[in-house]
Amino acid sequence: MSSTKHAQNADVFQQNKEKATWHDNALWFVREKRDRISKTLPEWEELRALGEKIKLHSVSHLASYLEQFAANAEANGVIVHWAKDAEEHNAIATEILQKHNAKKVVKSKSMLTEECDLNHYLEAKGIEIIESDLGERILQLNGTAPSHIVLPAIHMKREEVGELFSEKLNTEKGNSDPTYLTRAARVSLRNDFLTADAAMTGVNFGIAATGEIVICTNEGNADMGTSLAKLHIASMGLEKLIPDYESLSVLTRLLARSATGQPTTTYTSHFRKPVEGGEFHIILVDNGRSDILSNEEHIKSLNCIRCGACMNTCPVYRRSGGYSYTYFIPGPIGINLGMLKDPVKHSENLSACSLCYSCNNVCPVKIDLADQIYKWRQDLDSLGKANSSKKLISTGMQFLFTHPALFRTSLKFSSLAKYAPRSLTFGLKEWEDGRSLPPFAKESFTEMWKKGKVKKK
Amino acid sequence: MSSKDYILNNIRRNTRQVFDKPQMDLNAIRFDDQLAQFIEISKAVGGDAVVLKEGEDINQVIRSLYPDAKEIASTVEGITLTTLNPDEVNSPKELEAVDLAIIEGSFGVCENGCIWLPQQIKHKALYFVTQYLVIVLDRSKLVNNMHEGYKLISPSEKGFGVYISGPSKTADIEQALVVGAHGPKGLTVILK
Ligand code: SF4
């Protein structure tokens, strides 16, 4: 049986049935919360359409907005840096920290610094870096990576966190109450906030018209760090830039609702100037983003506001976990970003998709995630992966078929998806090409068939 | 070539199709009873909102809500409970022992409970390090949604502003909601 890395890793994830089921349900619950809250806004779909247009506009005017942003930020007293790639970003951050003789840095959640592998870089230079988002801190203490971009420790059970904390933070053995553990982390991290020499953050939105950055958190960790330390370094991917407050009002309304089903994050913080007597640096990071601009088929991946909704809804992600993907960002957006980063290295993630199109339908900025995955599959020939192409795709379907509960739910989505006619025809075509059907839940299939939802080509 | 030029050149060379800025004439949600909506959403986001009644003393109301608060920091006019003037400390770290901070918001947003706070005090840390937070808000200063809200914002002198909606929270352990992650463990909005 042929198998991709994703499929193999997914099988490992599925070995702990109870935990895998919990993971699936927990993420589905978040997706349902997102559905409920989006329905409280009559203008939700219009808002998504606007979100898409704002991002397409911003990305297609990136050079002029960047110049405007940098000029405004500099006028506000911010020191702006430009980094071509991860290495340059890390070198700039290190230089700033060393200049200030900073030995200890508190950091708030940032997928970009994850992308640059900043923590290891700084540690090698003798700088201690403390993750301050609770989920990220848990993973840092555990020595592992995030498995989701918004819910980084979603793959861990409370007992595992309890055990970890009793070892690292001296909490009582056997106590895995989330409130108790969160309080313990609060006490320990407060001490870190108060003793850190510098604070590093990511950026949710950069505003060209004002030169400010906006950071959204629920915990308040980015604010704690940056208001207690004198030095603030913010790492910002080029695509985070938007024109103005009018655009921001649309995107802030979409972000938290899509991410966790909340009406907003607790904190939407606007940073324009350094704190009194302090320094504020913004590092603008390209790291491949400006190359994506020329790729018209995949340019929309630059719309992403990193809400995680496509992961929560993805039937394959929910049942295989973030670690089953080879790229550090998992799920539908991660499959695409991984291909843009290094197609040869990450092509096996393409199997982690049943083309149910659910991701397209939840994405707040309407990225055509499933279409892009489909296109990548078509392109495998040119990547020298032609022979394995069919294998890849059929194993992707196989993963669903050998996990019947999983397949049923994926059908449940696609049954909603008059939007997604290709999802099933695509898979069926593969089998018609001479493969035997793997065992699957016949009932659902028959049901679907009767209802005319499976189209034969 | 500097990295800045390299990046900008690459962007210019790679930009193909250009998209216009969309018209943002969205018919966004509005509320008939803004006050009732604001109170309801403040509770939904884990905080609370109470209306100051005619003749009620704001200090007494706050004291009855937070009977155990010892160190109370505020610069809001008319607040007599204050034990610490937050503008008189040199380092924001000295605010770490504050039990209760009382601050003033500039407007509230009915769709999500956000209150806009342009930094008015010396150390913004007060908004976040305090164990509990009270925000005093003029009940006539409510807007329907974020679009209306962002139209009201102009840059604060100190260069920082924040929308706060409810107390600090996390659900990073098994998606169980815990109020009081790093910042305030409770938030009450007093609508005067
Ligand atoms: S691709 Fe869309 S749904 Fe997925 S994280 Fe990005 S914005 Fe959210």
UniProtKB/TrEMBL annotation, chain A:
Gene3D superfamilies registered for this protein in UniProt? Alpha-helical ferredoxin, NagB/RpiA/CoA transferase-like
Enumerate the InterPro entries for this protein. Answer: 4Fe4S_Fe-S-bd (IPR017896), 4Fe4S_Fe_S_CS (IPR017900), FTHF_cligase-like_sf (IPR024185), Helical_ferredxn (IPR009051), LUD_dom (IPR003741), LutB/LldF (IPR004452), LutB_C (IPR024569), NagB/RpiA_transferase-like (IPR037171)
Domain 4Fe-4S ferredoxin-type residues, every copy: 295-316
Q: Which GO terms describe its biological process?
A: lactate metabolic process
One protein family per Pfam: Fer4_8
Question: Which GO terms fall under molecular function for this chain's record?
Answer: 4 iron, 4 sulfur cluster binding; metal ion binding
Alphabetic keyword roster: 4Fe-4S, Electron transport, Iron, Iron-sulfur, Metal-binding, Repeat, Transport
Highest taxon, organism lineage? Bacteria
PANTHER family, A to Z: LACTATE UTILIZATION PROTEIN B
Under which name does UniProt file this protein? L-lactate dehydrogenase complex protein LldF
Automatic annotation (TrEMBL), chain B:
Q: What is this protein called?
A: L-lactate dehydrogenase complex protein LldG
- Which PANTHER family does the record cross-reference, listed alphabetically? LACTATE UTILIZATION PROTEIN C
Q: Which SUPFAM superfamilies match?
A: NagB/RpiA/CoA transferase-like
- UniProt domain LUD: residue ranges: 93-191
Domain of life, per lineage: Bacteria
InterPro entries from the xrefs? FTHF_cligase-like_sf, LUD_dom, NagB/RpiA_transferase-like
